[in-house]
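Justification of resources, computational component.

The compute hours requested in this renewal are based largely on the per-chain cost of generating structure records like the one below. Each record pairs the submitted sequence with a full structure-token output. That output is archived, and it is also reused by downstream analysis tasks.
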Amino acid sequence: MYAPARALRAGTVRSHHSFFESRYSDPVQEKMQRSLEQRMAIKFCVKLEKSPAESNPMLKKAFGVNCLSERQIFRWHKALAEGREDVNDENRAGRPSTSSSDHNV
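The structure output for this chain reads:
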């Protein structure tokens, strides 16, 4: 018997959520990873020539309460349909996430 099927029958398969909990103890890292996975799923939908309106309910079903907002799904769908290949966030201007001062050095 195929190993995943054996695990499923034995009841040892972990849910998608527990996978993230065990792999990413930091909630921010967990959220970033979920967002990245969803952007890859959107890219897949674009390659299958699915419209944003078709992609949205599929993503909602697959990712549930952790799904990107409809606006974000449509924004990423548009960018990827227009030729963007990279699903990673772009660097942003502003205050760096870590900084040093006399107090914390």
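The radius of gyration is 18 Å. DSSP finds five helices and no strands in the chain.
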